[in-house]
Design brief:
Elements (H helix, E strand, L loop, with lengths): L1 H19 L8 E7 L6 H18 L2 E2 L2 E9 L5 H13 L5 E4 L3 H14 L3 E3 L14 E3 L4 H14 L4 E7 L2 H16 L3 E8 L7 H9 L4 E5 L4 H12 L8 E5 L5 H7 L7 E4 L8 H13 L7 H20 L5 H8 L3 E4 L2 E5 L6 E13 L2 E13 L6
This protein binds P-hydroxybenzoic acid.
């Protein structure tokens, strides 16, 4: 009798404790990372995962009392059906608290409805089409948008005596975004578009386009293709087909001169002017520390915009959990993420409270050889720049 009463008392005490403490207090924080870890965009997954892990290595893997558990799923690149299945499994089977990653726009678009239905925060670490954040109220983005990076290079070109431009973009959402914004900003500043092409997003053959461009005699080509091998191929063709020799300039968003492929591009990249939110050579205390730590952790890779987005994504998650006391439920998470500010290796950043997109400095850079290494050297900037691509 006495025993039963005691057991009953401790049961009530235990229940009281459970009610008084948030259920989340000691539970792990499960983050499902959906990334291209294989296929033509495997470097995106590698770089983002590098950044995520570096953040945990430096800051510890316990956020507001919850141990961070990463579950990485390979979506193989441009394969939205795989993203959808991966997200469903992560939510239903693995019971993740947060969905994160997303190398390419179609991946983020495919998962947005799942985040909405499951009310899970979705942290976008690369996919850069402007409208992505409008596809679910649970999305927050820490990377960039194409209009955000295309507008500053369009203004720079117009201010620097470039009047006639030929645009070349990958024929999918981020390419259309880049083309639309470039044209808008450039023509508003008095520039003229003398031709435009859209290239296949998968393994394009650039030769026929390059001849057309040469025949149109533009002063410059504005290019957006997804970072990586396509940029190397375009740059090679640009030199081999005599466009560079004909005096045609190449301008682009910094996806082209991504540090991950800059060494492979080699000397033809010298002098190319781009606009972008991150450069390995960015001069700041935070970036110096980031680049040094990165080199130590990953001696065979160079830090780039994708790694920094993975790193900042984890930083945002930690800051949000601090604010919510460990609560990662979709509504609480997004409410706390709105307006969040922090110092990134790229410079000061914040989350726009209205759009949940990132506000950041966009830099104008030129490829130069620095200490024997090709680098994007920043020489101008547009501070606290919001995505101009939202309706
Ligand atoms: C995208 O698919 O949104 C994307 C991919 C590669 C980039 C930028 C954007 O370099």
């Amino acid at each position: 009798m006495k025993m039963t009463r005691l057991a009953g008392a401790s049961l009530i005490a235990a229940l009281g404790l459970a009610l008084a403490w948030p259920a989340t207090a000691a539970e792990p924080l499960k983050i499902g990372l959906i990334l291209p870890m294989s296929g033509p965009f495997a470097a995106y997954g590698k770089q983002i995962e590098n950044g995520v892990k570096l953040y945990l290595q430096q800051n510890g893997d316990v956020f507001s009392g919850r141990k961070v558990e990463l579950i990485v799923r390979d979506d193989t690149g441009l394969a939205p059906a795989i993203d959808k299945r991966a997200a469903q499994e992560l939510v239903v089977k693995d019971k993740v608290d947060i969905l994160a990653g997303f190398g390419l726009t179609p991946s983020a678009m495919a998962v947005a409805p799942i985040a909405t239905e499951a009310k899970k925060p979705m942290v976008v670490m690369n996919a850069a089409t402007s409208s992505i954040t409008t596809k679910s109220p649970y999305i927050v983005r820490v990377s960039m948008t194409l209009p955000q990076n295309a507008a500053p290079i369009a203004s720079w070109a117009a201010k620097n005596a470039i009047r006639k431009v030929f645009t070349v973009v990958a024929d999918y959402a981020p390419g259309i975004d880049a083309e639309t914004q470039f044209k808008k900003t450039f023509t508003a500043a008095g520039g003229e578009i003398v031709g435009e092409v859209r290239t296949p997003p998968r393994s394009p053959e650039f030769s026929p386009f390059l001849q057309r461009i040469k025949d149109a005699h533009p002063q410059a080509v504005f290019l957006f293709v997804p970072a990586g091998q396509q940029g190397i191929a375009f740059m090679k063709g640009f030199a081999e087909r005599g466009l560079a020799a004909a005096g045609i300039k190449l301008i682009a968003t910094g996806d082209l001169t991504d540090e991950d492929v800059l060494d492979a591009m080699g000397d033809p990249a010298l002098g190319v002017i781009t606009s972008f939110h991150y450069a390995e050579s960015h001069r700041s205390r935070e970036n110096k520390a980031y680049v040094e730590a990165y080199a130590k952790a990953y001696p065979n890779d160079r830090p780039n915009f994708m790694s920094v987005a993975g790193y900042d994504g984890m930083h945002l998650i930690e800051l949000v959990l601090k604010k919510t006391g460990g609560n990662a439920d979709g509504d609480a998470f997004i409410a706390a993420a709105r307006g969040m500010k922090w110092m990134s290796p790229r410079g000061p950043v914040s989350i726009d409270p209205a759009t949940r997109d990132i506000v950041q400095t966009v830099y104008i850079r030129k490829v130069e050889r620095v200490d024997g290494k090709l680098q994007n050297v920043e020489f101008d900037q547009v501070p606290a720049f919001r995505d101009p691509g939202k309706p």
